[in-house]
Design goal:
Chains A, B, C, D: It holds the Pfam family ThuA. 4 copies of one chain form a homotetramer. By secondary structure, chain A is α/β, with parallel strands linked by helices. In chain A, 24% of the residues lie in helices and 31% in strands. Chain A contains 7 helices and 10 strands. In chain A, a hairpin with a 2-residue loop joins strand 8 and strand 9.
Chain lengths: 241, 241, 241, 241
């Protein structure tokens, strides 16, 4: 049983009727419903909750955290960001969606600006699978399409991904590294591009399949407890000191 | 002509006679002398200088910054760290040495704890070249040795390097990824393990050769000026909005 | 249920009493017994069988193939090598053990000489986990040891692995990239170093755990059927012919 | 001084007047002229020459080999392919262009099918720089365009590149990993997509700049002479034999 927490800032849904109509239970609600299955136990958490819903208890009880944010990145407290960061390094999986590229937690884990090009003009997006052996691409076709999406274009200022799973083609002439995996400490991180709030992207079955696959990929099992710091020799040393 | 700035916290050298005897001109002085050559123009900077010697002018005039720090990581101001970080993303090369693994700038660029095992017992270290095609390994033998060094052992909590150039063998039974390259934004970063302050490591010709090679590898040339943010379409879009 | 085929040239076991005493059921038998579990269905195949036991039927019914060879690499027919190669690109997992580094199938998949240094002198080997987030390292400690093994030393002439999971320390002064993952087409490949025929390495529980983990990692699920060749446009083209 | 050999099968140019009109000196001639500069010494070689113009003497005198082939891949002798392969592993750089993806030498170095989708319909191609720190992208803009080219589309069945420098956008709806680097042994390999024979691609200044940059990147300097095989211990071993 993989324990998933879907986090959403849940701001657009309250301010904009059109968005609320697309996501009546919030983006978090749509994702939680969309990836529900037997092997997964899901809860949601949002910005307005105490500690943004991400208490020590919740995080310790989370195998994979899914993150959607956009307007309110700056309102996420540094303390919670550090707590999530620490949990990732200890083994929790993290799936960062769309505009989460500019979240504090993603920038902290990447070490770069995470900047990119964007355009809200309803481009068609076609996501090509470039690593068909990857478990995150399991069960997809050679590509899948999203009829209308916000465009994100290169250069995307991220570290070269450990594995590049998807590349997006956009109608307006751009490309984007849309599915990127990273190991950070004991934890796994997956960035997945689609999901602008004004489109019904999280009702798309291919998008949901990718998120489900990523949950399975990112979930830790037994883990390893490293030790750090001053270490006794395992073999005899002739050296001085 | 590559413009290099060698930065050193320059603390141990003032507090400890033995260290001062090994590095009478400071670690920065030894490195600056050791990598001097026709194609390189070198200056040094230290923690105690105004703005730690890393003013906007100095950084804008620097192609490659070399960083040595240990005791005083916390005394480096966040403002300067952010300035260096910004310059790396814009194209400046950065070479982080030894205990610099725990510097603010390295941790910020890596996004992980950068923790490791260590032991000050004069282990013999043998650095094996595992990527012989890499320019940073140019001119070396299959391995080189340092008679006595501080041990650093795995697990080293860093992102998987873009390229792994050296792996160290230690007498006491550990291994370490000792030469790691990363691209971050427009800039190149090289982490190189050797260089504990109590050993004459920066007088070792192989160590100096690696640092010289890394300076050449990390130096930017023409660069690329990205633009980010809202972007007009390059092709017609049928999409709504 | 993952369908595993353990392939072994099964030559040393017949020629040398000491080796036969260590592996009375052959290296393939020891591995098959050692990784037996509920979720895995295992068969073995050996060089002397018709088509080396690797008929089209067997390979089509295999999710993960484990390969041990040493003395008889040249006796494996090119036709079977091509068949295995084709199956890997179509999705079958492949785990290559120890002296399999010089097998035809591994060299064909890697594209390099796969050469290395070696020594049969019973060195102690200590395998350090350098990617603790990797599923192949699940459940291990920070390192594990093999009291006596053949030494393999760098430079190991392989492509830089997609992921480096283990680095070995050897008593005699060498290091080695001992656990290397690769995606090739739809298939996953794992090279794992230990397992010289004169030592009881495949009775070691950590070694067996790694192989079990690798079976789980390498097993394909749904897969993707690519098409290649002449492709019709998905969008209108203004271009001339 | 970097010694470059531009190899071309030189078949299309003889069979097709339109192609001969675009490349009156052959594709090899156009490239040789296009990348000529002070630091480079260039010769050409073609299929019809004895040993395809790639004698031991020529290869030993070559730092970087550029390869264009299409119709006549099967006519390249295995002996010469093995010779080139051996030279790459010993340190010679290799730049494989466009339809060279299906050459014997590229497939041998990659270990995969190197298959892809294609279409000859004059798609517009736009190559985006995704690794702006890479020396092969030096001096380019954020992207460059080729008005009409043959389309190559994913999935491109290659190993994940060590570094991905360019991604192509095609008018007809596809994407492609267009600039891929690999280290193989002591040698560096760069695959660069553009260059169908029916378009004047090798007269395009950005394309030529990329090839020039790649020549500089791929050229070996001092190199390292590895030894392989039976190795004496560097440290004392307690182990048995």
């Amino acid at each position: 049983m993989i324990r998933v927490t879907v986090w959403n800032e849940n701001v657009h849904e309250k301010l904009n009727e059109k968005i609320a109509a697309i996501y009546p239970k919030g983006i978090h609600g749509a994702i939680a419903e969309g990836i529900a299955s037997e092997g997964v136990q899901i809860r949601t958490a949002t910005l307005e909750q105490p500690e943004h819903g991400l208490t020590e208890e919740v995080l310790n009880d989370t195998d994979v955290l899914i993150w959607w944010g956009h307007r309110a990145h700056k309102d996420v407290s540094d303390e919670i960001v550090n707590r999530v960061h620490d949990r990732v390094l200890k083994g929790m999986g993290l799936i960062v969606l769309h505009s989460g590229h500019f979240s504090k937690i993603f920038k902290k884990l990447m070490g770069t600006s995470c900047d990119l090009k964007w355009r809200e003009q309803g481009d068609k997006e076609r996501l090509w699978v470039v690593d068909p052996a990857h478990p995150i691409a399991e069960g997809l076709g050679q590509y899948f399409e999203i009829e209308h999406e916000e465009m994100y274009g290169e250069h995307f200022d991220i570290p070269a991904p450990d594995e590049l799973v998807f590349i997006s083609w956009f109608e307006g002439g751009e490309v984007f590294r849309s599915g990127c995996t990273y190991h950070r400490g004991n934890g796994k991180v997956f960035y997945f591009r689609p999901g602008h709030e004004t489109y019904p992207t999280y009702h798309n079955k291919d998008v949901l399949r990718v998120i489900s696959n990523a949950v399975n990929w990112a979930a830790p099992r037994h883990g390893i407890r490293q030790t750090y710091g001053n270490a006794k020799p395992l073999e005899p040393i002739k050296g001085q000191q």
